[in-house]
Design a protein that fits this description.
The complex is a heterodimer of chains A (about 270) and B (about 325). Chain A is mainly α and about 270 residues long. Chain A has a domain at about 55-230: MetI-like (MetI-like fold, Orthogonal Bundle), CATH 1.10.3720. Chain A has helices at about 10-30, 50-55, 55-90, 95-110, 110-125, 130-155, 160-170, 175-200, 205-210, 220-225, 230-270. In chain A, helix 8 (about 175-200) runs antiparallel to helix 11 (about 230-270). The radius of gyration of chain A is 23 Å and the shape is globular. The two termini of chain A are about 35 Å apart. Chain B has 2 domains: about 5-80, no CATH class; about 90-315, MetI-like (MetI-like fold). Classes of the chains: A mainly alpha (about 270), B mainly alpha (about 325).
């Protein structure tokens, strides 16, 4: 939408919107440095809650489980999701395509409690011991659909003439995919992986259903403590998580932007040459 | 190599074969995964919703097992029943949970639209150099944990929390507002958590809009307000529908927000299902609750899928 000035009303509504989105997070971070045990009374700056975390082995174990679950499930989900995206975009006609696309889109909006309960009942029915492995399976299942949608949108704007050129020059389809297609859709695959990673890092409901007594993830640990009351330690854990995710997203977007700029420059150079 | 087939034609045949196999696998692997881990579980949920509660592990007496052959299976089928569903209609708790979930989700979807529209509109009109950054700032909170963002509101909304401290200090109020553990806190939580889901689809329709249409309408004597309703609002309807579905469907089944912010008086079906499962350990009733929730959501979900498929067609 161009041609009209950015009015005062627009500026005010965007500013208020961002204040609403960011203020709660900012307050949470600030109060993680509060010296007082009472979260809402400011009593001076302190890092003692972070120090307390260093000795909290239960929290550390939960963080370690969460990290491993997220790494494995995001990686498998990225492979499966990318395959699903290719299936949706490149194969417009195959038996059961309607069901396939329904199964891709439904998990995007399906309430977590339903996904969690249904997977748990499946694991019990086939006699799978619940724990680390079942959480991974559950996370792969819903995050692969998010990856599929992200990669699909990139594939739809993809210039197929490059692929056709490679095939005409004798490259077999699988080789064409790895040499031509994958590098071009890589930014989307990477953001799909990151999305799957954070979805897994974030998930409380599905993991609670899918896990057994052995495996506790960080959100499950945080949740059980929050139910007992708001404490500065939880603010500190949350602040660390926010810092990690924000750094990751900002670095990824800078890298992506650089790559985009380089690609544009290369394309211009190719057109001139 | 037979003399009839030249190396190139054999190569081509091989390539076609490998392409065919690769194509099949690309479809078959994710398809099989979703069938086994997404579709089949629903049938298991349905099956268990028909079985009887038992004090055992797993806490239900299995409906359908194939140990006793066909005759045994038939005996089991006769034992199946809709008792759990009858139970759901007899206890008002469930009916109220469903109704209040749909009501809370609908009101919060509307609120999200009202708050999200000006933000999306503002971003779509921002100078093009700023737009990417603003959009990134809308997405960023979505990357940080849902649980953490909901948790952050507890400290703000508590009776002795930051909002009340501020308002008391400003002398706007004289005694603390009770917001936490009421449905008001749930509305705030849903609007806050789902705002990016509303802003993004709205932005993508508003950004594509041709502004000359509005100029033409205003030149022809339309007031800015009626030009907005007649043109901008109408043209952004696909974005409004997509945003509302993305908020409404998950909000109906929301668990974390009503549990942490709503207190014991706010009934929502996601919480009822959770309690039925984890506290009462009644798996068959929890399954029946899930099936009914799925039935309520099936129409909006199918509508959402069709909208997605249409968008996909348009992008092709």
């Amino acid at each position: 939408m161009n041609g009209r000035k950015w009015s005062r009303f627009n500026i005010v509504s965007v500013t208020l919107g961002f204040a609403f989105l960011y203020l709660p997070i900012v307050l949470l971070v600030i109060y993680s440095f509060n010296a007082s045990r009472l979260v809402t009374v400011w009593a001076g700056f302190s890092t003692k809650w972070y120090v307390a975390l260093l000795t909290d082995t239960a929290m550390q174990n939960a963080a370690w489980v969460t990290l491993r679950v997220a790494l494995i499930s995001a990686s498998v989900a990225t492979v499966l999701g990318t395959m699903a995206a290719i299936a949706l975009v490149r194969y417009t006609r195959f038996r059961g395509r309607l069901l396939f696309s329904a199964m891709i889109y439904a998990p995007l909006v399906m309430p977590d409690v339903i996904i969690g309960l249904s997977l748990l009942l499946l694991f019990v029915a086939v006699g799978l011991d619940r724990g680390f492995f079942t959480i991974v399976l559950a996370h792969i299942t819903f995050s692969m659909c998010f990856v599929a949608v992200v990669v699909q949108s990139r594939l739809l704007t993809f210039d197929r003439s490059l692929e056709e050129a490679a095939m005409d020059l004798g490259a077999p389809p699988v080789k064409t995919f790895f040499l031509i297609t994958l590098p071009i859709i890589m930014p989307a695959v990477v953001s799909g992986w990151m999305l799957a990673f954070t979805l897994s890092l974030d998930d409380l409901v599905v993991a609670s259903f899918a896990s057994g007594p052995g495996a506790t993830t960080l959100p499950m640990k945080i949740y059980s403590q929050v139910r007992l009351g708001v404490t500065p330690e939880i603010n500190a854990v949350c602040t660390i998580l926010i810092a990690i995710v924000t750094t990751g997203v900002v670095i990824a977007s800078i890298v992506n932007k650089r790559r985009e700029v380089r690609r544009l420059r290369d394309e211009q150079a190719a057109r001139r040459g | 190599m037979t003399p009839a087939s030249s190396p190139t034609s054999e190569n081509r045949a091989l390539r076609r074969l490998s392409s065919l196999v690769a194509g099949r696998l690309v479809i078959a692997i994710p398809y099989a995964w979703l069938l086994v881990l997404f579709l089949v579980p629903f049938f298991i949920v349905f099956k268990i919703s028909l079985s009887e509660t038992a004090i055992a592990m797993p806490p239900y007496s299995p409906a359908f097992s194939f140990i006793h052959g066909i005759a045994g299976l038939w005996a089991e089928v006769k034992k199946l029943g809709f008792d759990n569903y009858v139970w759901l209609t007899q206890d008002n708790l469930y009916l109220f949970s469903y109704l209040s979930s749909v009501k809370i989700a609908a009101i919060s979807t509307l609120l999200t639209l009202v708050f999200g529209y000006p933000i999306a509109y503002g971003i779509a009109r921002a100078p093009s150099t700023l737009r990417a950054t603003l959009l990134m700032m809308v997405i960023l909170p979505f990357w940080t944990s849902f649980l953490i963002r909901v948790y952050a509101w507890i400290g703000i909304l508590k009776p002795e929390g930051l909002l009340n401290q501020l308002l008391l200090w400003l002398h706007v109020i004289h005694e603390p507002l009770i917001i936490l553990n009421t449905s008001k806190a749930v509305y705030i939580g849903i609007v806050y958590s789902y705002l990016p889901f509303m802003v993004l689809p709205l932005y993508s329709t508003l950004e594509k809009m041709d502004h000359t249409l509005i100029e033409a309408a205003e030149d022809l004597g339309c007031t800015p307000v009626s030009a907005f309703w007649k043109i901008t609002f109408r043209l952004s309807l696909p974005g409004i529908v997509a945003g509302c579905l993305l908020v409404f469907i998950p909000a109906v089944g929301e668990f974390v927000i009503p549990d942490l912010l709503g207190g014991s008086h706010t009934l929502m079906i996601g919480k009822t299902l959770w309690n039925e499962f984890f506290e009462n350990r009644d798996w068959p009733v929890a399954s029946a609750v899930a099936i009914i929730l799925l039935l309520i959501l099936v129409v909006p979900i199918v509508y959402f899928q069709q909208a997605q498929a249409r968008a996909e067609e348009a992008g092709r």
